[in-house]
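Researcher: Please generate the 3D structure of the following complex. Treat every line as part of one assembly.
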Amino acid sequence: MISTSSLSRKMNPLPFLARSFGSPINILITVVFAGILFFALPPLVRWAITDAAFFPAIPETCKSASGACWSFVIAKHSQILFGIYPDGERWRPLLVCALLIGMLIYSVRPSAWSKRLAWVWAGGLGLSWWLMGGGIGLANVESDLWGGLPVTLILTVVAIGLGFPTAILLALARRSKLPVIRLLATLFIEMTRALPLLSILFIASIMLPLMLPEEILPDKFFRALIALYLFASAYLSEVIRGGLQAIPKGQFEAGEAIGLSFAQLQAKIILPQAINVVIPALTNTIIVMIKNTSLVLVVGLFDLISSGKAALADPEWSSPSIETYLFITLIYFILCFGFSRFADRMEQRAKAPVK
Amino acid sequence: MTDDNSAPAVTLSNVEKHFGSFQALRSVNLDVARGERIVICGPSGSGKSTLIRCINQLEQHEAGEIRVNGREVGSEPAQLEAIRREVGMVFQSFNLFPHLTILENCALAPIWVKKLPKADAEAKAMALLERVRIPDQAHKRPGQLSGGQQQRVAIARALCMEPSIMLFDEPTSALDPEMVKEVLDVMLGLADDGMTMLVVTHEMGFARQAANRVIFMDQGEILESAPPDQFFANPQHERTKTFLGQILH
Ligand SMILES: Nc1ncnc2c1ncn2[C@@H]1O[C@H](COP(=O)(O)OP(=O)(O)OP(=O)(O)O)[C@@H](O)[C@H]1O
Ligand SMILES: [Mg+2]
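Model: Done. Output below.
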């Protein structure tokens, strides 16, 4: 907020009050917002809680209520979360979501970062793939039938998880002394950034089938995944390159002088510092990528938003779309906010004088 | 080619270096015997840093030959690896790794380059930190140390690789006056132990006390080279006299 004068500093024992009423402008802002809250809050509470319909989760409950129709979300949560995945098999995507979220939380602790973590992820993703797609003891479920939260999670985790190391290589390649490598990296990054994600998705899902023979054509899900991965790599690599540029020449020289190889120098000295510098920008890009996964609906994949939309099509219900989208918003919020808290911790860790 | 035990520590023959069209080194010749301590001085821009940076190939020379312990120095990966095991370097601006603790700064190269087990590398690092008299700072980050302490850590970090030759590029010129002595004391200790040292510095007290030879450079050339007594009492060149007049007041 607007910081003012010595007045607010003098009133330090009451910082909140001091900031709220410390100057005429702050008083005005405080009054306006209090007014908005005063008028908006009661009807909101009435709509969302007191007048809302919850149980039993059937269409009739909503018809008699004047507030929000949460019964719909309660009744349809499984379809919103898992899309058109076959009814009896929905424990599988549920398990995949739990597995992926569990692995994410496990990976957040720096003490878990080791070679073993890479194996945990390789195993976890392989297991997810089997659970989602079936085979070996499970009924086959084509990726056309996958939908909802697991699709959003898999796309995000794989696109960013593979995109991040690729981005590091691209950023290094773009600074390489070898002109050919530099040119190729620059070309890839600039072309990918020049295209909107939508057109990359269209190219991957509509043009590729025209160009590639049927046998080697990856399925729709894979094609979208590759498009997201390429997009994430290009954007993340420019952020990382910005960080690399901030590292003083003396760091390279000191590393070389004690005999580190190029790879060791980058891995131990340069990249850790470069990434620390750009944590806020990386967070931003990754959060945009998390939300970008919803664009796969244009190429016919059922991410969280499209499966919510599909659930709303049920004629038995009065299509409570606000409630449904609020529910989806909440899930996105948890994902993005969770990530941004993680990034915040990383930033604190980088700034902390001692580990 | 292997190390030749009878060869001088460093030999430079007709070494040339350009930056673009600017010639930074002009046919430099220099022999440094094992255990010899050389102080290099000269006006700003005379090529002192360039000279010692060519020895460990932070700069690549274009003509002439450099040998370290008899082995030719060049930019091939195998050559680079060999030189950097033999030659340690200390920079004017310390260049410690700010994201690592003091101990990690020192143990990094032994672990990754020499492939020592972590415990051994850390024990070695601790021993050297004791030698430069800052073992109690081992678990801090460089940013929490004073300049003099940081420079002593930088010396310990270089020593951890057990080099036979140490290069110093103005190790005390970024320090507040009261910290210069603590760094020079560590360097004097190294000299006493018989380390081969090439030191770019304007600390003439150090030159008098520790150097076997003082070298004066000007415009990319070695103009004068003499034992300290002779160098200070009886400089041969006009430019050396002018320079000494300036720095000794
Ligand atoms: N990377 C570089 N690119 C272009 N010119 C350079 C580069 N490094 C050094 N020079 C030039 O080469 C000359 C010698 O530089 P050098 O750093 O060796 O001088 P110096 O004797 O160490 O001087 P100082 O006492 O200022 O450190 C200077 O004129 C400098 O401008
Ligand atoms: Mg210099």
